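Quiz preparation item.
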């Protein structure tokens, strides 16, 4: 815990700005988007939330450039965190980026992904059937050669953004600011949940719970590589699985 008053204030300001730029503004926008959807005529299930859509329909090369720019936009806040950590004389290990047993961490992430992914899918389908969630469409990208690679890159970038900023960085700063472990876990989980509220109630509750569990894991283990791996696997399966299954199974909402 940092005890110098001026240093704590600057650290608090730094934390607020970094988290707000990385995910905070998007979380606020997500809340407003959901409010708009909830107030619109008809049920939520009749509306659609597209996660990876075409940015330039009919122009595949321009679309590819815009997709890659979107991936870089997700990764830039991660770069900011790494620079800030280095400027403060901290190690990457202080925010959980430890690679001393990366094979074991990736394997652990795969196991966590299987469990969390199954529970998350079940929760979404229940919420969607009950009218509490929008029809989540993981991708509407055209069937071009770069669709799968871009979806994989998007999955990895989203994972890096959320786990580095909302777990490694935020939990570390919470400890330095003197927050209780429970307050830190709750803050991380709530921000993550709000960040996904545009998908509906399942997006809020599922990600709030996942965020809280991930933050608690980092508090106990000091590692986020398993979390980045798990999040990446979950999104890759969701994005690419949708490409293979959409239109072929009745229980999966198809794009309109």
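Solution:
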């Amino acid at each position: 815990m940092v005890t110098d008053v001026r240093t704590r204030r600057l650290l608090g300001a730094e934390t607020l700005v970094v988290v707000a730029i990385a995910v905070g503004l998007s979380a606020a926008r997500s809340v407003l988007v959901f409010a708009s959807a909830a107030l619109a005529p008809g049920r939520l299930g009749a509306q659609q939330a597209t996660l990876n859509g075409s940015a330039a329909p009919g122009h595949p090369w321009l679309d590819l450039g815009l997709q890659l720019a979107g991936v870089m936009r997700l990764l830039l806040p991660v770069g900011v965190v790494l620079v800030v950590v280095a400027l403060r004389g901290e190690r990457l290990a202080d925010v959980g980026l430890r690679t001393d047993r990366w094979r074991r961490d990736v394997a652990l992430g795969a196991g966590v992904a299987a469990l969390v992914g199954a529970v998350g899918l079940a929760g979404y389908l229940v919420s969607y059937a009950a009218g509490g969630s929008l029809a989540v469409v993981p991708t509407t990208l055209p069937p071009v050669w770069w669709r799968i690679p871009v979806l994989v890159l998007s999955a990895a970038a989203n994972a890096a953004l959320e786990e580095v900023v909302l777990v490694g960085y935020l939990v570390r700063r919470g400890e330095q600011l003197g927050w209780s472990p429970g307050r830190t876990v709750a803050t991380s989980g709530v921000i993550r949940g709000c960040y996904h509220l545009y998908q509906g109630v399942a997006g809020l509750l599922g990600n709030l719970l996942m965020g809280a569990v991930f933050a608690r894991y980092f508090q106990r283990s000091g590692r986020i590589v398993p979390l980045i791996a798990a999040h990446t696997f979950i999104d890759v399966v969701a994005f690419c699985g949708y490409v293979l299954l959409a239109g072929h199974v009745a229980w999966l909402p198809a794009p309109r």
